[in-house]
Amino acid sequence: MDIAYSLLLWLHLVSLAVAGATVFGMPVIMSNMAGVGPDIRPRVGAIAKRLSMLSRGALVVLLISGPLLVWLKYGSVEGFGIWFTIKMLLVVLLIGLVVFSGINGKRAQSGDAAAARRAPMIGVVSMVTFLLIVAAAVLTFG
Q1: Which of 31, 92, 100, 105 is 20 to 30 A from 116 (CA-CA)?
Q2: Residues 137, 85: contact at Cβ < 8 Å?
Q3: CB-based contacts of 25-29 (< 8 A; 24+ apart in sequence)
Q4: Sequence-distant (≥ 6) Cβ neighbours of residue 135 within 8 angstroms
């Protein structure tokens, strides 16, 4: 069981890295969307779409592996306290931001200037949320 837990933790951390790369990379891509012409926009959109798909896959792995890790090591969430609750609320917020960012990104790719201007703000909020999730996880499990 120890090796299974270690492999699951590894998978969880790799998925966290992929999600983090997207959370920090997508704002860079989307902030450039407003300045590119209609001939370049589809290329930038294709990069964003691939990165978004990787991120969604990583998020699914995180949502499955996280509860499994807790169950295997602790048996339940009993006794984790307020930081665990905060972490889970932030996870819900990040999922909402991922969905909103995807919708907004499609609008920006199709030429919606307001959506393109909104993308950097969504990115900053996503980055801060991601960092707070990691901090809350450290305060819960560290």
Answers
A1: 92
A2: no
A3: 25/51, 26/51, 26/52, 26/55, 26/101, 26/105, 26/123, 26/126, 27/119, 27/120, 27/122, 27/123, 27/124, 27/126, 27/127, 28/123
A4: none
d(CA 87, CA 102): 22
Instruction: Give pLDDT tens digits for 52-97.
Output: 899 989 999 999 999 999 999 888 888 889 999 999 999 999 999 9
Name residue, tokens 């949502």: 63
